[in-house]
Amino acid sequence: MMKKLLFTALSVIVVNAQLFAQQSVELAPTPPMGWNTWNTFQTNIDEPLLKGMVDAYISSGMRDAGYIYFVLDDGWMTMERDSNGQLVADPKKFPNGMKAFADYVHSKGMKFGIYNCAGTKTCAGYPGTRGHEYEDARLYASWGVDYLKYDWCNTDSLNAREAYITMSMALKATGRPIVFSLCEWGNHQPWLWAKGVGQLYRTTGDIYAGFDKNLSKGTWTALSVLSILDKQVNIRQYAGPGHWNDPDMLEVGNGMSFIEDRAHFSLWCMLAAPLMAGNDLRKMSDQTKSILTNKDAIAIDQDPLGVEGFRYSSADSLETWIRPLSNGDLAVCFLNRSVQPINVSYDWATHVIQDKISNTDVDFTKITYKLHDLWTKKDVGTTKKAFKQSIASHDVVLLRLSK
């Protein structure tokens, strides 16, 4: 009898795990795309500002380019829960309540996201979710929340895996499909256990608008684009449809040069990273818009095969990144990490591309690909001839190779 009960219990666990994994794929078959308030506004948000941002989201072409989530980060709530222990949207910032704002976002054809933290308080000192997981999840569902970013401040001795599983179960118990973004900073290697728990999981600490040098914040260090890039190299096997490595939000339009922004965006597309913009959409330059809405680059990020790219070679500050795509295509990104221009002369015939994760095996002496530059939007030859080009400091060339 005991063996039969144990077998039944194990069967239920296996079935539930398979079901949750399938739900994750359905919620995020490709990396989520959206916009988050934090990088530009931190906690200085309110309903009029954000409604204007929703409108700019649409008029800028962001929504039509594939960005779908509008996410409120920290600072949307009052400093204390109410007498019933419920979270309360700050009435000064959101006089019509959070449900009304969520309805506004939905009325514009987008999905609505919100923020909280696994600890007792959020990173900005507002009420955290610890001990309130199920009631908070029910509240979010009642508001029409479609996406939850869940941070890791003020967690003391909490077990990360257990804390995120608890919140994951609470979200699933609501019956509402809610994308779960684990923002645990990679401290507890979520790529090893977060598949089926959430749809995306941070792999590093926070990014800032710097390309090649980290920035000390006293008690912590903000990470540069290249520093975060380097931390992704050995974990690509853990990403795929429904469970994405998240190297943090985009800093495009927030202070780097146009070239660095373009490189940053290209590299995140090669990483199959969630694309969560964080610039002021109302003041977006034409250059910034041209990066964030480049549909050819976005197509690399959103490729349905869902295989993260890898660093194929690195020599003298020139890196070659390769990403296998659906239909046998390849994305190739040449990155110049140096402060000087680099002349590239890439003889395809001398390279064989092998990737066990995607079962890719390409010998350029046996097959010819057309080369299309995704930033100049021009065809630039085939793999029968060496690819030659000068690449500026901190710039990239992003190519799509098609048979």
Q: Could you explain how this protein is built, in words?
A:
The chain has two domains: 287 residues, TIM Barrel, CATH 3.20.20.70; 93 residues, Immunoglobulin-like. It is of the alpha/beta class and 403 residues long. The strands form five sheets. It has an eight-stranded parallel β-sheet. A six-stranded antiparallel β-sheet has the order 11-12-13-20-17-18, with helices on one face. The chain has ten helices and 20 strands. Helix content is 28%, strand content 22%. Helix 6 links the parallel strand 4 and strand 5.
Core attributes:
403 residues; alpha/beta; 10 helices; single chain; globular; 22% strand; Immunoglobulin-like
Write the layout of secondary structure elements.
Layout lengths: L1 H26 L5 E4 L1 H4 L5 H13 L9 E3 L26 H10 L3 E7 L15 H11 L3 E5 L8 H14 L5 E4 L17 E3 L12 E2 L4 E2 L2 H6 L13 E3 L11 H13 L4 E3 L8 H7 L2 H7 L8 E6 L2 E7 L5 E7 L5 E5 L5 E4 L4 E4 L6 E4 L4 E5 L4 E5 L4 E7 L1
Parallel strand pairs: 1-2, 1-10, 2-3, 3-4, 4-5, 5-6, 6-9
Antiparallel strand pairs: 7-8, 11-12, 12-13, 13-20, 14-19, 15-16, 17-18, 17-20
Give a short overview.
This protein is α/β, with parallel strands linked by helices and 403 residues long.
Measured on Cα atoms, how large is the radius of gyration?
22 Å
Strand order of the largest sheet: 9-6-5-4-3-2-1-10
Beta-strand content estimate: 15-25%
Count of structural domains: 2
CATH architecture name of the largest domain: Alpha-Beta Barrel
Low-confidence stretches: 9-15
**SS class:** alpha/beta
General shape: globular
Assign the CATH superfamily of the largest domain: Aldolase class I
CATH topology of the largest domain: TIM Barrel
The total of beta strands comes to 20
Give the end-to-end Cα distance, rounded to a whole number of Å.
60 Å
Oligomer: single chain
Number of helices: 10
**Helix content estimate:** 25-40%
